[in-house]
Amino acid sequence: MALRVARISAAEHLGFVRGRRSVSFLQTPGWGRVKTEWRSESLGWFDGGELVGAGLVLHRPVPRFERFTLAYVPQGPTIDWAGDIAAWLDPLAVCLKAQGAFAIRLCPPVRTDTWSAAEVKDGMAAPGVGRLAEAAGGRVDAVGSRVARWLGDAGWLPQSPEDGFGVGQPQFTYEIPLAGRTEDDLLKGMNQVWRRNIKKAEKEGVEVTARGVGRGGVDGGAFGAELKAFHELYMHTAERDHFMPRPLRYFATMFAEMGAEDPERISLYLARHQGDLVAATILVRVGGHAWYTYGASSTAKREVRGSNACQWAMIRDSLAAGCDVYDLRGITSTLDADDPHVGLIRFKVGTGGRAVRYVGEWDLPLRPMVYRAFDLYMRRRSR
């Protein structure tokens, strides 16, 4: 199979995405317009005249080497990873090197291992088990294992840290399968704490509303006010939980660009109790895959369980929309009770579902000297 890689239009790329059941939202043309600090382009793989694969590539120049770029393909590209990997990735490397890329960074949307909620819980309780990879059980994905071996043999360099939670895309995620299930099935799969908190929110009268951008746009009308309210709560959450927040303009761009691509692509969920905003979240959906992407919660009135109410509303809406998966996004690989990050997986495992390990991020140096200079720069900056 001889494939050709060439630039495609955003319309061609979007048409390809719409023809697939599941494509990461990070591989949509709209996401490229959200990441304003990067230069984005859509590339297509052609078998003769037929478009058979697509990828969003984000380019970033290197300090002091501005004519060269790191070509980043987050959670992509959308190709046949079960096929001849060299036939897909070799022409990509040729294309991007000709454009001035000094390296390619891929994050293949391919899983290598899966653990059920019960297996994760057992791992937490088992003596001597500190990480997911050490937990008993789990299922190995043959395609993912093959992709990881091929990348290593072909000279690609793994970039994901041991805990799987670095500056790029998380290698470990948590998700709830939805296909073939009912709301009752999903509630039964949750632990007692989650079911109790959902009922508590209902009993306390927490009301959750979902909003898309609508005709008024992101800056005007009701949506603009709601987005501002979300961001104020998000800033409060960032200060409380000690993380670096994104500006309001980032979220405005996110809703404007992704909402223009598909009016059902992105939604804002707001949980209120007696008029007070107690929690807010953002849901993104592409085909049969839905993602919880951002969340915020009030320190006051935590007892009314607004965050659980938001999550349950997003899960129900994803199920009603016919989604196959509700994705709670990143977790670390730790199962150590003394690790401060274990609370994240403990919270998500309560929903039922499963923990997933992906192939992770990999670099292919195309210009080794520039790549070494970039690697040194990044190591110094992280100190």
From TrEMBL:
Source organism superkingdom: Bacteria
SUPFAM superfamilies, per database record: Acyl-CoA N-acyltransferases (Nat) (SSF55729)
InterPro entries: Acyl_CoA_acyltransferase, FEMABX, PG_Glycine_Bridge_Synth
UniProt keywords, alphabetically: Acyltransferase, Cell shape, Cell wall biogenesis/degradation, Peptidoglycan synthesis, Transferase
Gene3D superfamilies noted in UniProt: 3.40.630.30
PROSITE patterns: FEMABX
Leader sequence segment: none
UniProt xrefs under PANTHER family: LIPID II:GLYCINE GLYCYLTRANSFERASE (PTHR36174)
Similarity comment: Belongs to the FemABX family.
Protein name: Peptidoglycan bridge formation peptidyltransferase VanK-Sc
Species of provenance: Yinghuangia aomiensis
